[in-house]
Write a structure and sequence with these properties.
- There is one protein chain.
- With 346 residues, the protein is an alpha/beta fold.
- It is built from four helices and ten strands, in the order E-E-H-E-E-H-E-E-H-E-E-E-H-E.
- The protein is elongated.
- The chain starts with 5 loop residues before the first strand and ends in a 9-residue tail after the last strand.
Length: 346
């Protein structure tokens, strides 16, 4: 039997490190299977339980997961403080019943692995758990995090200035808005990472795997991204002024309104990328692969354009390409189109 009951409340704690998390609360009592108790009475009992839970800890959201036999499972979502408060009460023996119903279990749950009824419990003895907690509460500035496993962690707005994250496992991590100025992420695995708005000024990302990552509006001035994999990456609005992207793979990436002025893109792969209204002034594009790329409204003034692969690349209304360069590109199968009335820029 499932009661369609929700008791929602807004999160009031806006502290950066208090990300919403999930706990599983299991209540067990014969009253839940009392055949004499009518449906409405049972529903009222469940509402009573939810109300009392709300009084125990603020800023939590409660959802009935299931009522099966004599057991009631409730999903509890809230800040770390709220859930830790309930956990401490349970561990101390003060949280043993709710509205006359026995509390059987209270388990913190890994938010990244929560999928409906399938729950993976957090092992609080896991070094990863404590590492994430420490970084969010104390910061990780200048910390040695080489080869650390932070995959799937929520570290948005974290302070990791000058942190050593070489060869770290950062797959699927949320570092949006984080400060990683001067951090060393050489060889790190950032597959599918969220780095929107992150500050990576002067950071080292040589040979890092950033495939499918979101770097929208990120600050990457003077960052070293040489030989990094940036394929299928979102770099819309990102600032890569004077960044080193030598040999980097940017295939199928979005570089709309991206600032790449004075960047080193020699030997880089930008094939099939969309380069729209991008600032490439003074950049080095020698031996760069632009095959099948779409280049529109870009600023290429004073850019180095030697030995570029432009096969089937499309150029529309760009600055800095003189007639001789245009003719040379067309000899190598580049396509020049007149500006269209309806913009196709992204």
């Amino acid at each position: 039997m499932i009661f369609p009951v929700n008791n929602n409340s807004e999160y009031t704690d806006d502290s950066t490190y208090l990300e919403p998390r999930i706990a599983e609360l299991i209540l067990k009592d014969s009253v839940l299977i009392d055949e004499v108790m009518q449906f409405e009475n049972k529903k009222r009992k469940v509402q009573e339980i939810l109300k009392q839970l709300q009084q125990l800890a603020q800023s939590i959201e409660l959802t009935i997961e299931n009522v099966e036999a004599d057991q009631l499972t409730i999903k509890v979502e809230g800040s770390q403080i709220s859930l830790q408060q309930l956990q401490k009460l349970f561990q101390s023996g003060e949280f043993t019943e709710v509205s006359g119903v026995t509390v059987k279990q209270f388990n913190l749950v890994n938010l990244n692995n929560y999928q409906g009824d399938e729950i993976t419990q957090i092992d609080e003895n896991d070094p990863q758990f404590h590492l994430i907690e420490r970084i969010m509460s104390q910061g990780g500035n200048d910390e040695d995090l080489r080869e650390a496993n932070l995959s799937g962690a929520i570290l948005n707005n974290a302070n990791l200035i000058l942190a050593d994250l070489r060869e770290a496992n950062l797959m699927g991590i949320d570092l949006s808005g984080a400060n990683l100025m001067g951090a060393d992420l050489s060889g790190a695995d950032l597959l599918g990472a969220n780095l929107t708005g992150a500050n990576l000024t002067g950071a080292k990302l040589t040979e890092a795997n950033l495939k499918g990552a979101d770097l929208g509006d990120a600050m990457l001035q003077e960052a070293d991204l040489s030989w990094a994999d940036l394929s299928e990456v979102n770099l819309i609005g990102a600032n890569l002024t004077q960044a080193n992207l030598k040999g980097a793979i940017l295939s199928d990436s979005l570089l709309s309104h991206t600032n790449l002025s004075q960047a080193n893109l020699s030997e880089a792969h930008l094939n099939r990328s969309i380069i729209s209204k991008t600032n490439l002034s003074g950049s080095i594009l020698s031996q760069t692969d632009l095959s099948e790329a779409y280049v529109s409204g870009a600023n290429l003034n004073q850019a180095s354009l030697d030995n570029i692969n432009v096969i089937h690349a499309q150029f529309v209304d760009n600055e800095g390409i003189d007639e001789s360069v245009k003719q040379d590109f067309m000899k190598h199968e580049a396509i020049f189109k007149a500006q269209v009335t309806e913009s196709t820029d992204i």
